[in-house]
From TrEMBL:
InterPro entries named among the record's database cross-references: Etherase_MurQ, Glucokinase_regulatory_CS, MURQ/GCKR, SIS_dom, SIS_dom_sf
Protein name: N-acetylmuramic acid 6-phosphate etherase
Keywords linked to the UniProt accession: Carbohydrate metabolism, Lyase
Occurrences of domain SIS (ranges): 58-221
UniProt source species: Oenococcus alcoholitolerans
Length: 298
């Protein structure tokens, strides 16, 4: 195997503030760790112009019937799989609309799969199995910026003509050179040398949150700051759904509950029924005509 040069990677460098980490008290370690974590949001702020470009790509994919496909390994892979999974209940989308592919498959979510991230061909195969099309956007994620599983996937995505974005925690990354858009967030050396589940992982989570959430807002999944397409799949979410209806329409709990039931437990339909004083069928027609945007039905 070719020697991997870690010397140039910021994520592998030692942090001067924690050189005596094993000697620190719990109090001292917690203070330093918190101080290091505060640097993450500032670093993400520097990458906002490129994050905005990535969001526009994802929105365009959604509007053209395409998907958002994340692909990564290790911590990066686990974070993107989590973000993809959370889109289903939060925004009421089908699981295929936002997909997370991780090196080593489902097993890698809980245990390390040896050598999986070094297999570039597997990244290609995983995208082929997902039936990647030019309408999709692929976001390759790697803290190091050089993971073969991700590089292989991005190279294949480019050949297909899909939109490509690279998210890494090192400048001048390999994956950044392969993608149409690169998001490179420099959070500095980790609190614990090389442990990219820390600041790097936090930065990745923040960026993924922005991409998925704002993209969903742009396709009508939110009214004001309310998740109006939430799937009420358990007791807590049913109550949240009713409160969302109350907040959106300034109605009582009783009214919200009644309309929620009339709307077959569809929050958005119930809101439009109340705000435009119409029945379920008409509300659904209004929403369809407005391409899912509640505000445009008013």
């Amino acid at each position: 195997m070719e020697k991997i040069d870690l010397d140039r990677l910021v994520t592998e460098k030692r942090n001067k503030a924690t050189m005596d980490l094993d000697k620190l008290s719990i109090h001292q370690a917690a203070i330093i760790m918190n101080k290091e974590d505060q640097k993450v949001a500032i670093a993400v702020k520097e990458a906002l112009p490129w994050i905005e470009i990535a969001i526009n790509k994802v929105v365009a994919s959604f509007q053209n019937g395409g998907r958002l496909i994340y692909i990564g390994a290790g911590t990066s892979g686990r974070l993107e799989v989590l973000d993809a999974a959370e889109c289903v209940p939060t925004f009421g989308v089908e699981p295929e609309m936002v997909t997370g592919l991780i090196a080593g498959g489902q097993k890698a979510l809980t245990v390390a799969v040896e050598g999986a991230e070094d297999d570039a061909d597997q990244g290609i195969e995983d995208l082929k199995r997902s039936e990647l099309s030019k309408n999709d956007t692929v976001i390759g994620i790697a803290a190091s910026g050089r993971t073969p599983y991700v590089t292989g996937a991005l190279e294949y995505a480019k050949k297909v003509g899909a939109g490509t974005v690279a998210l890494s925690l090192n400048k001048d990354s390999v994956i950044g050179k392969l993608a149409d858009t690169k998001i490179e967030v420099d959070v500095g050396p980790e609190f614990l040398t090389g442990s990219t589940r820390l600041k790097s992982g936090t930065a990745q989570k923040m960026v993924l949150n922005m991409i998925s959430t704002i993209s969903m807002i742009r396709i009508g999944k939110v009214y004001k700051n309310l998740m109006v397409d939430v799937k009420p799949t358990n007791g807590k979410l049913i109550e949240r759904a009713k409160h969302i209806i109350m907040e959106a329409t300034d109605s009582t709990y009783q009214t919200a509950s009644e309309k929620f039931k009339e709307a077959d437990n569809d929050v958005k339909t119930a809101i439009v029924m109340i705000l435009t004083d119409c029945d379920k069928k008409t509300a659904k027609q209004k929403i369809l005509k407005a391409h899912g945007f509640v505000r445009k039905t008013l």
